[in-house]
Structure formats: C-alpha cells, structure tokens
Design goal:
The protein has 117 residues and is an alpha/beta fold. The protein has a single domain, classed as Transcription Regulator spoIIAA. It is 37% helix and 25% strand. It contains four helices and five strands. A five-stranded mixed β-sheet has the order 1-2-3-4-5, sandwiched between helices. Strand 4, helix 3 and strand 5 form a beta-alpha-beta unit. The radius of gyration is 13 Å and the shape is globular.
Length: 117
C-alpha cells in the first residue's frame, strides 16, 4: 500500500510505502504525479520507506511507474532506516539528472527542508 499526499513543499509529493503496492496504488500515483507535473516543470519526491517490509527499492520504483517520469523528477529524498543507504547510493547512479539524498526516519524534517532548497 502507498499513501500519496502533497508535501509541505509546493512542487513536491510525499509517498509513504507500507507493505505491498497494489495496481490501484499505481494508478493513484500516476494520476497524482501527472497533476503535479502539469503544475510544475520538475517535481520533488519525499519517499518514506521506514515502514516498508519485504520489498526492494528497485521494486518500488518499478511498481510506482517512476521510471517513465524520471526526467520530471528534480529531487528525490529517501527517508528510511540505515539498511537502505546502500540502495539510495546505487539509485543516485541511475538518475543522473535527479538529485538523491538519504535521510533517517528521525531526520524527515531535514528531508523536507532539502526538497525546498
């Protein structure tokens, strides 16, 4: 399941991933992203993974259909526990035009601040 909400930054989306992502979640993400994309040239994403279980970050990206929208993502802030740092670093190499930063769950406010800069 994913929960998608507007982030505290105008051009950003907050995505909280918990458990498995369903087809309805993907459709909801795509609709929400396209609405935000129509309003802003580039979109920032706050990806909350600290409650996610049994899924890789690569799987999340595929499930969320983010691959086709990468050119529209300016910044991606990944909030997760330390076991995801390694994945975040690898992800940054796949997204040359997207700035990627990792934040621990207790630093979510810093992630939001970084997206606003």
């Amino acid at each position: 399941m994913i929960k998608i909400t507007p982030a505290k930054v105008d051009n950003a989306i907050e995505i909280e991933v918990q458990g498995k992502v369903e087809k309805e979640d993907l459709n909801h993400f795509e609709e929400f992203f396209m609405l935000k994309r129509q309003e802003y040239n580039k979109v920032n994403i706050l990806l909350l993974l600290d409650k996610m279980e049994g899924m890789t970050l690569k799987g999340v990206l595929e499930d969320l259909k983010m691959i086709q929208y990468l050119k529209y993502i300016q910044k991606l802030a990944i909030v997760s526990d330390k076991k995801w740092i390694e994945i975040g670093v690898k992800l940054e190499n796949l997204l040359p035009e997207t700035k990627v930063e990792h934040f621990t769950p207790d630093n979510e406010a810093q992630a939001q601040q970084w997206l606003s800069e």
